[in-house]
Amino acid sequence: MSKSPVTVIGLGPMGAKMAETFLKNGRPTTVWNRTASKAAPLVEQGATLAATPADALGASELIVISQTDYPAMYDSLGGETDALKGRVLVNLSSGSPDELRRADAWAAERGAELLTGGIMVPPPGIGRPGSYVFYSGVETTLDRHREALLELGDATFVGTDPGLSMLYYQAQLYLFWSTLTSYMHAVALVGSAGVSAEQFRPFAATTVSSLAGDGPMGFLRIVTEHIDAGLTTDDPNALRMQAVGADHVIEASREAGIDTTGPTALRNLFWRAVDEGYGGGGLSSVIEAIRNPAP
């Protein structure tokens, strides 16, 4: 049986790779981009270039959108009221959760369904083992098109709130960026004494592995249990002691002549939690300062 067609709107690095992935899987693929010349390599691979947004919408029920942001969707498709009816818009562009919720209402007003998503790999990883996408919206709509969307990566449904996929997406990005940026700071710190990044990497790898492990030193698991079970105010590894340690990281960074922006932000967060009465608890107590930002 032939596969159902798909339309890809937006042919930046992500969108182009999505269209290429659909084509390699033998799926009829129509493409449209505000700069039509970007479609040329995909047309050579068998894609159909739509002349207008209306033609792009008319070619498929499933419309996968990968543009700079959500306003780009409004600019591209906002005038196609009739063509939007009955379409499933899978928008994998980045935005804020509230922006995605507004987009869901915008699509519904035009007779379309919106699935919001956050794709958790860079363009080369799309469709490869380990790639996955967070989706939110109507689960039966996702199920109806799951076969096609699985060609991009594992499809993880996180809830009916249209903004939830972006909350997961942004949370994962923050975790990824902050972990690697902390590693860069650590490399710069030891590098001030002539230690190479490769010399330090095995020790960093041990720390990162211990964070995710299930053993007695699995700190991610330990912090998760503390947060979900309720924080204590009496911990032998008290937050106050760790806040003092954060002061020392800043001193060491200054002595090394490297930037202190990241460590200072971390130290300030620790001390604010201490000042709010959580100094006797463990590191998990910092979440109270995060949940209740300073005025």
From TrEMBL:
Signal peptide: none
Entry's family note: Belongs to the HIBADH-related family.
Alphabetic keyword roster: Oxidoreductase
Name this polypeptide is given: NAD(P)-dependent oxidoreductase
Origin: domain of life: Bacteria
Record-annotated 6-phosphogluconate dehydrogenase NADP-binding domain positions: 6-157
PANTHER family to which the protein is assigned, alphabetical: CYTOKINE-LIKE NUCLEAR FACTOR N-PAC, OXIDOREDUCTASE GLYR1-RELATED
Residue ranges of domain NADPH-dependent reductive aminase-like C-terminal in the record: 161-291
Entry's Gene Ontology molecular function annotations: NADP binding; oxidoreductase activity
Keyword Coiled coil: no
